[in-house]
Design brief:
The chain is α+β, with helices and mostly antiparallel strands and 159 residues long. 28% of the residues lie in helices and 42% in strands. Strands 1, 2, 3, 4, 5, 6, 7, 8 and 9 form a nine-stranded antiparallel sheet that branches.
């Protein structure tokens, strides 16, 4: 499901995810290489037109991975060993975006955020179609939140 539909279905995790991804303007994406082994790469997430979008350099390894097998995981950057800001993850598939209007909306979003925009058509653009999501924190409270469309939102107390 697209980001705005996920946010409506699970606003608790979506709000935490938007805050975590927006704070660092960076996430990690896990993809599958041609031989099936995992790859993890940094990527800049953006929210535009109701989508979580990831722009990538033309023909980058992570983009080629997603074109071959769109399954992926998105992970917020954790900056200390205690994970005090929380650990946000999304599992889903990457949708290769060719729609000119959606690409233009993405470019305007990037330009507003960093004062630069990619040139057409020399980049890959993917929207993440979300299957499940999670969040964990070990700060004052130790708990995890998990969500998928079948089971809904669950809270797990961590010791």
């Amino acid at each position: 499901m697209q980001w705005d539909k996920f946010a409506a279905a699970c606003p608790e995790i979506a709000a935490l995810g938007e805050e975590r991804l927006g704070k660092n303007e960076l996430c990690l994406i896990g993809t599958l290489r041609k031989d099936g082994s995992p790859r993890i790469s940094p990527c800049e997430p953006d929210f535009a037109a109701g989508h979580l979008m990831l722009g990538m350099m033309w023909q980058s390894h992570k983009a080629l991975d997603l074109l071959r097998d769109p399954r992926c995981v998105i992970h917020s950057c954790v900056s200390d060993r205690m994970g005090s800001e929380g650990d946000f993850k999304l599992y889903g598939t990457a949708v290769d975006i060719h729609d000119a209007e959606l690409r233009e909306t993405y470019r305007k979003t990037i330009l507003a955020r960093i004062g630069w925009e990619p040139e057409e058509p020399n980049y890959h653009l993917f929207a993440i179609d979300i299957d499940s999501a999670g969040f964990a924190t070990f700060e004052d409270e130790h708990y995890a939140l998990a969500w998928d469309a079948r089971k809904g939102l669950r809270r797990i107390e961590l010791s």
